[in-house]
Design brief:
Its main location: cytoplasm. It is found in: Cytoplasm, Cytoskeleton, Cilium axoneme. Belongs to the CFAP206 family. One of its GO terms (biological process) is regulation of cilium beat frequency. This protein has 576 residues and is mainly alpha-helical. Helices cover 64% and strands 3% of the residues. The protein is built from 21 helices and five strands. The strands form two sheets. The protein has a three-stranded antiparallel sheet with strand order 1-2-3. A two-stranded antiparallel ribbon has the order 4-5. Helix 1 (2-20) packs across helix 2 (27-37) and helix 16 crosses helix 18. The longest helix has 53 residues, at 265-317. The chain is extended and about 100 Å long.
Length: 576
């Protein structure tokens, strides 16, 4: 298909341009950008340009993508990068972070584990001492108790290890099978780590040498909460600043159904780009913050478990001089498991902070400065223009009838569009202003529309047939709005469906007999191929000898002299 070939050619040109600029850009991201941006009303390509491959339009489109990628103040590319970070940032998933850290951790410890398991059954005293030292390092590293090079921590671990396993037990350990050794090593590490953790719990613990994950989590929660709150407040402030400026530059009258403005709407679109970017940032940060809050809840639950098991161990040890190991060791194993869970939660908080920092870098101070400068520029332009322009709501909706989109309207049911006025977006072709009321205008589709007040809602109900098609085209013909409302997947899947080539109506059926190729030197036939002609002669003679010895008799021992002996009767011979 021409459309398919054109898009592939565009992607190839863009990747080549990035190679010339020595930029390492993910090809999958470029495919995402091209398929989404090609449908944009302002920066995309017309369908005729794709089908007929308009060279000038394609060059302009490629240059626009490359320039916007390297520009730090391009809002559309910033929105796409934020969306891509959220799509590919698997760090938002707690289970994924846990599995990744455990996998990387096991890969790093594999050499040490193999070294511990390789000791022979007949170990000397020196080898047992080496094994004991390596076990200490393994326990410290396995449960993140601190730095494995810290001699004080290793000494504390050695004391705990001596209380669990002695020299005779260590000699018995090397007599076990290898898989039994690994299982025992893991149980031993959990028990010893629990003892070290318990001994250093509380205010009298050795904080300089033994890591205290509870204190690390408290500090991480405090810093993360303040960082998220600061970023969310800054994004909300800038979004409100841009929306307030747009609201002052246009006047919408739902009673007279007219819109009055001095600054051209295309200039207002420049300011609206910053509103979209900060709204996108706010939603991405909100998703990360919700994931962080769920992790905070799990941390609180795990903290209660930690305090509970410490209290249980204290009660068990109180007023006793000798305790059976089967009674106390399970509590140490449990506290080490709780410790590992707290470490996983800390790793998740770290990953969420990494994603937050990536988003903040994409919307840097340069975009903020440009947004403030744009506001000042448009306000000055509004003062210079004396005669305002006035247009009708229905006329503005009619402008969108000439445009085409194949976006599925029902996909809006999954989009969160109730925060912005849908009527304002439709009339102004995408300007975002906050909504104060909500309405469900479609009876058969569960879509909640946001509107500025009840007069706006009344107008949309009266002119529903004109409003819905225009609103659909405004949303799906804007890459920024599709990203903001998370409709990009629906658009791209539709685009990819269009690019699927139809299968041919006729297809050759390979049903003929397999050809016999002489001297075929491929791997399957190599066994029957030889370079010596005498081998063929010897094989022929051998086959002839076998043929000579082949029998054609149908007799067996059972049926010697007759056929079907088992089911036949014979008359006895009559002697005269």
């Amino acid at each position: 298909m021409p459309r398919h070939r054109t898009l592939l050619e565009i992607e190839r040109r863009i990747m080549k341009r990035f190679e010339q600029l020595d930029l390492d850009v993910e090809e999958e991201f470029i495919v995402f950008v091209v398929h989404l941006l090609v449908r944009d009303l302002r920066r995309g390509l017309h369908k005729s340009d794709l089908d007929k491959q308009n060279a000038c339009a394609i060059i302009r489109f490629v240059d626009g993508i490359v320039d916007s990628y390297v520009s730090p103040v391009d809002c559309t590319m910033a929105n796409m990068k934020m969306s891509w970070v959220m799509k590919k940032g698997r760090g938002i998933d707690l289970q994924y972070v846990k599995e990744q850290y455990e996998e990387n951790f096991l890969n790093e410890l594999k050499l040490l584990i193999d070294d511990i398991l390789q000791y022979p059954e007949s170990c000397s005293k020196t080898q047992l001492d080496q094994l004991f030292a390596k076990m200490q390092v393994f326990i410290v590293a396995c449960y993140n108790l601190g730095c494995p090079k810290n001699h004080v921590l290793l000494k504390l671990t050695a004391q705990a290890l001596h209380s669990v396993i002695g020299r005779s037990d260590l000699q018995n350990y090397v007599l076990k099978k290898k898989y039994h050794r690994l299982e025992y090593l893991q149980r031993l590490a959990a028990t010893v780590a629990g003892i070290v953790i318990y001994n250093n719990d509380g205010t009298d613990g050795d904080r300089e040498n033994v890591r205290f994950v509870v204190g690390d989590l408290e500090m991480a929660q405090k810093n993360t909460s303040s960082a998220f709150q600061l970023s969310l407040d800054e994004a909300a402030k800038m979004q409100s600043l841009c929306q307030t400026a747009i609201d002052r530059l246009i006047q919408l009258d739902p009673k007279d159904t007219t819109m009055t403005y001095r600054v051209p709407l295309e200039h207002l679109q420049r300011l609206n780009q910053f509103t979209l970017t900060y709204a996108m940032l706010q939603r991405c940060l909100g998703a990360l913050h919700r994931s962080y809050e769920s992790t905070v809840y799990l941390i609180e639950v795990e903290r209660k478990r930690y305090d509970c098991v410490v209290a249980k161990i204290n009660d068990t040890l109180a007023m006793r001089t000798a305790i059976d190991s089967e009674l106390i060791f399970p509590h140490f194993v449990y506290i080490s498991q709780v410790w590992s869970n707290l470490n996983n939660f800390l790793n998740h908080v770290v990953e969420l902070n990494k994603l937050r920092e990536q988003l903040e870098l994409l919307v840097g101070p340069q975009i903020k400065e440009l947004a403030e400068a744009t506001i000042a520029e448009l306000q000055a332009l509004d003062k210079r223009i004396k005669e305002p322009q006035k247009t009708n709501f229905l006329d503005r909706m009619a402008v969108m009838t000439d445009f085409h989109t194949d976006g599925n309207f029902c996909s809006l049911a999954q989009a969160d569009i109730k925060d912005f006025c849908a009527l304002t977006m439709t009339i102004t072709n995408g300007l975002l202003l906050p909504a104060k009321v909500t309405r469900q205008l479609c009876m058969n589709v569960n879509i909640t529309f946001g509107l500025r007040d009840h007069m706006y809602a009344r107008f949309t109900e009266l002119f529903f047939e004109q409003f819905i098609p225009a609103f659909r085209k405004v949303i799906f013909n804007s890459a920024n709005l599709a990203l903001l409302f998370k409709l990009d997947e629906a658009l791209i899947s539709q685009e990819l469906q269009d690019l699927v080539e139809e299968p041919p109506k006729r297809r050759d059926f390979a049903g003929q007999t397999e050809m016999v190729v002489t001297n075929d030197l491929s791997a399957p036939n190599w066994i029957n191929v030889t370079w010596n002609a005498w081998d063929y002669h010897r094989e022929t003679i051998h086959m002839a000898e076998l043929r000579k010895r082949q029998t054609r008799d149908t007799q067996t021992k059972i049926s010697y002299g007759q056929r079907h002996a088992q089911n036949q009767t014979y008359n006895t011979r009559q002697h005269k």
